[in-house]
Write a structure and sequence with these properties.
The chain has two domains: 1-105, no CATH class; 109-351, no CATH class. It has nine helices and four strands, in the order E-E-H-H-E-E-H-H-H-H-H-H-H. It has helices spanning 76-87, 109-148, 173-214, 234-239, 243-258, 263-274, 281-297, 304-310, 326-351, and strands at 13-15, 22-24, 156-160, 167-171. The strands form two sheets. A two-stranded antiparallel ribbon has the order 1-2. The protein has a two-stranded antiparallel ribbon with strand order 3-4. Helix 2 (109-148) runs antiparallel to helix 3 (173-214) and helix 3 packs parallel to helix 9.
Length: 357
């Protein structure tokens, strides 16, 4: 039997992952490792490798520590041990590989490119709305001025839609002036806000569906308060002629359920699912969505639900008007774009850059 060499401190004993035997962190032969190209009993000769510093200690296996992998279902004591090993100056980092409990972070160029494309698309759509309003506003204001200067009291006929037959509504020039005033000050921007938030929610839904398409097993990810993914009935399963189409339908139904929840909840789910950090811009997004709800359901008057959803970003107390004018809408567009940028940024950090060079 080969003589065991005396170990010099500092060292500690750990249990080998494969053999279960005790071994010191500075000792032992490396096991065959396809990732490091080390074979059993072989000392690496590369300049960057420190295997020649490791001494033999019985027939124990090398302790493999995680470096670029995130711990998941590992007890706290093991996690603390792994973190201590990684920081220890005498532990070889080149020959590390994950346990089965660790979640491997791998680049995914195809997924990253799709997110890059989706984010570019929503930013373009939001910018299109801004460009249109900038072009249309002067024309509307000019048309309004024509009615402001009119002295006519005549009711003019204007075509209005009708299901049964063609109809007309009568308006005076003064009434036309009021119509233009309403839409150039608030009405047009309220309508565009509702549309822009809907477009943005569609973007978020597309991001979730795209992620689940690449990582379908993650559909079981849960967040408190979020409905679980829908079940597939045996009838639908048997009747399905295309498995991929059935899976996509499940993903789509699940995304629909997700976005029936309040923004703070579905953004928490999205952040957990995609490993996206909660960005400060998310709070601004919650207020924009809450304002959209007021426009649709409460004539822009703040209620208790608005105050709760908007939190510290609330623009008024219960009973107060929360106006949506040009300045607010343009700021809302910038906030939506910032949220999309934060999501793309964190996805690129984990899965790689989607931008084509």
């Amino acid at each position: 039997m080969q003589e065991r060499r005396r170990l010099r401190p500092p060292f500690f004993m750990v249990k080998g992952y494969d053999s279960g035997r005790l071994l010191p962190a500075r000792s032992g032969l490396s096991l065959p490792d396809p990732d490091s190209c080390h074979s059993c009993g072989t000392v690496c000769s590369t300049p960057s490798c420190n295997m020649d510093r490791i001494t033999r200690y019985g027939d124990a296996s090398c302790f493999f520590c995680p470096v670029i992998f995130s711990l998941r279902v590992v007890p706290a004591s093991k996690q603390s041990l792994a973190e201590h090993v990684i920081r220890h100056p005498d532990v070889m980092r080149q020959n590390c590989r994950p346990k089965t409990e660790l979640n491997l972070i791998m680049p995914n160029e195809a997924f990253a490119k799709r997110i890059y494309s989706l984010q570019n698309k929503i930013v373009r759509e939001l910018n299109n709305a801004h460009i249109f309003l900038e072009q249309a506003q002067p024309l509307l204001i000019e048309a309004k001025a024509k009615y402001e200067n009119s002295k006519s009291k005549v009711d003019r006929r204007y075509y209005v839609p009708s299901i049964e037959r063609r109809k007309f509504a009568k308006r005076t020039d003064a009434e036309l002036k009021d119509i233009y005033s309403h839409y150039t000050s608030n009405g047009l921007f309220e309508a565009f806000l509702v549309n822009s938030v809907s477009q943005f929610e569609s973007f978020l839904g597309d991001v979730i569906i795209e992620f689940l398409t690449h990582y379908p097993l993650r559909i079981t990810e849960t967040v408190q308060g979020m409905p679980a993914c829908p079940n597939i009935s045996p009838k639908d399963l048997v009747a399905a002629t295309d498995k991929d189409e059935l899976i996509q339908r499940v993903f789509s139904d699940h995304a629909g359920n997700v976005f029936r929840q309040r923004p703070s909840l579905y953004m928490t789910y999205l952040a957990k699912l995609l490993s996206v950090k909660s960005d400060p811009s998310f709070s601004d997004y919650y207020e924009v969505c809450a304002t959209r709800d007021l426009v649709v359901h409460n004539n822009g008057i703040a209620n208790a639900l608005y105050v709760e959803k908007a939190g510290t970003k609330a623009r008024g107390a219960v009973g107060e008007k929360t106006p949506v004018d040009q300045d607010y809408y343009y700021e809302a567009l910038a906030k939506l774009k910032k949220v999309s940028g934060a999501i793309k940024r964190d996805i690129e950090k984990k899965y790689g850059r989607g931008e084509e060079v």
